[in-house]
Write a structure and sequence with these properties.
The chain has 262 residues and is α/β, with parallel strands linked by helices. The chain is built from 11 helices and 10 strands. A 6-stranded parallel sheet has the order 4-3-1-2-9-10, sandwiched between helices.
């Protein structure tokens, strides 16, 4: 039965496990397959053509699991590869930018966006937010050092505080809502919040999980079994360090990790 197929989720690395965490909490009965392109991360510093090619390859790898839906849990791949994958995928594909942008557009006043260089330079968030609110004032800041800090597991560290403050100081004080435009960033929320208290942070993983729930209410349908769904984790390269940090991203043990060839 199509409804009982897994939801496929992929990311450039392990940051997308924050999306898996949100899906596991909101839709515990669903089977999930997570594919992290840890052999080729980061995507955020690469060209549009390369990111698009990687996105298509990751979608193709996930098709082996016959997913009923694919979630691109990577803001950079969503910005540069979503239309190309949607054009060829036999199942529906959604990214993390549209749900985050929709949530941002609903908030009053100017909005800040923080993300990788490739995500910010694509203008994808600005375009998506303005589809909902053409008059919205948007301020974007590229934060290339935050992903390595998250991958290193420096979630709550004075060095992370210092770097977060330097980036966030580029956003005007009036921007009381800030979109975490990278799925790694929720793990750094303690530092981000210390540097900009009173900010409303939009976690793209959380709002994407809600978007998946809305899709399942429609034509895709929920898994029929009520037991807790299984999680398969596949990486294109696996090290003990990645598994250790992945546990912290997921907030539960990763379990067995399969290594897949691209």
């Amino acid at each position: 039965m199509k409804a009982d197929r897994p939801i496929g989720v992929f990311d450039s690395g392990i940051g997308g496990l924050t999306v898996i965490h949100a899906l596991r909490r909101l839709l515990p009965q669903e089977d999930l397959v997570y594919l992290g392109d840890t052999a080729r991360l980061p995507y955020g510093t690469k060209s549009h053509r390369t990111i698009e090619r990687y996105t298509l390859q990751m979608g193709e790898l996930l098709q082996r699991c016959e997913p009923k839906l694919i979630v691109i849990a990577c803001n950079t791949a969503s910005a540069h590869g979503l239309p190309a994958l949607q054009a060829v995928s036999p199942c529906p594909v959604i990214g993390v930018i549209e749900p985050g942008a929709e949530a941002a557009a609903e908030q009053p006043g100017p909005v800040g966006i923080i993300g990788t260089l490739a995500t910010v330079s694509s203008g994808a968030y600005e375009a998506a937010i303005r589809r909902h609110d053409p008059a919205k004032v948007i301020h974007s800041v590229a934060c290339p050092l935050l992903v390595p800090l998250a991958e290193e597991g420096w979630f709550d560290d004075p060095v992370t505080d210092s770097i977060c403050r330097r980036y966030l100081n580029q956003l005007p004080f009036e921007a009381k809502t800030v979109v975490l435009g990278c799925t790694h960033y929720p793990t750094l929320l303690a530092s981000l919040d210390r540097c900009r208290p009173g900010t409303r942070w939009i976690d793209s993983g959380l709002v994407t999980a809600k978007a998946v729930d809305r899709l399942l209410q429609g034509s895709i349908s929920y898994r029929t079994a009520s037991a807790r769904g299984e999680l398969r984790v596949q990486l294109t390269d696996a090290s003990s360090r990645l598994k250790e940090v992945g546990n912290r991203f997921l907030e539960e043990p990763l379990g067995d990790v399969e290594v897949v060839e691209i």
